[in-house]
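Thread title: Can someone regenerate the structure for this chain?

I was given the following input by a collaborator and told the matching structure tokens would be attached. They weren't. Posting the sequence so someone can regenerate them.
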Amino acid sequence: MNLFNKTFAALELIGLLSLEVHKDIPPYPDRLQARISQELIIKNNNLDKYAVLVKGDNQKIYNQNFSSIYNVLIENGFKSENIYVFVHDGGNSVKQFNHPVDDVSSKESLEMILNHLAKKIDKNDIFLLYLSDHGGRESVKSPYENQIVEVSRFFLRGGDINELELEKALKPIYAKNKILAFDFCYDGGFADRLGKNNDIAVSSSLYNRVSHAPNLDSFNVYFFQAFRDICDSDYNNDKRVSIDEAYRYAIENYSLAKKGVDRPQLVSKIDVRNISLR
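Best answer:
Regenerated them for you:
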């Protein structure tokens, strides 16, 4: 057990950190299964936009931010029928949200929806994934070489998912662009691994650093807010906000990034100055 996991376990033991939401095995995602069973599976070669939003923790103070991101997507051309939302209790606290909730945020739900979308999304589509919760580091056997490697992991109910597992789950999705936004400690490991080909990864921290969200002040909230605050974030005045401009806007407005406490990053092999949510 590494130092991070020992500290995490100790905090939980003395009651300073509650992770019961992750320990409980969630119910089978029946509502998600019912929804996707009624959807037409066809690759239509049109420009469609799909999004999967996952909120794994049970901290009510962040629900407003989560709902705000959903609304930003709607404002930027994402249709509600192409957005899939997962929260920690599956929406039993649905009154806290001003948008539909599909099911519980579990590893099974995430893998199910990604497998479903791989059958619908084609090379003309935009796919966005947003993961928000707690994260950590773990040692696993690499599928590429016969050795143990350190990877970042995202905490979910019923089983965490690490960067290698998410890479495998996303591989069958052949979108024009995948925009992957991560909002948890050590999420830089996911960005480093997944920000390649035509994909764009944004993380709130480096692979070996924690991230923070003091008083609802969050890097990813500013990142998505940039697509709404076009008067302040459209730096080149072309009447659209690019991924590059959104990242710059977030860096300039997130207090802990300005102070150098948090180290957000944008990882991609393509020119993100020409990519937008619109």
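The CA atoms of residues 233 and 245 lie 6 Å apart.
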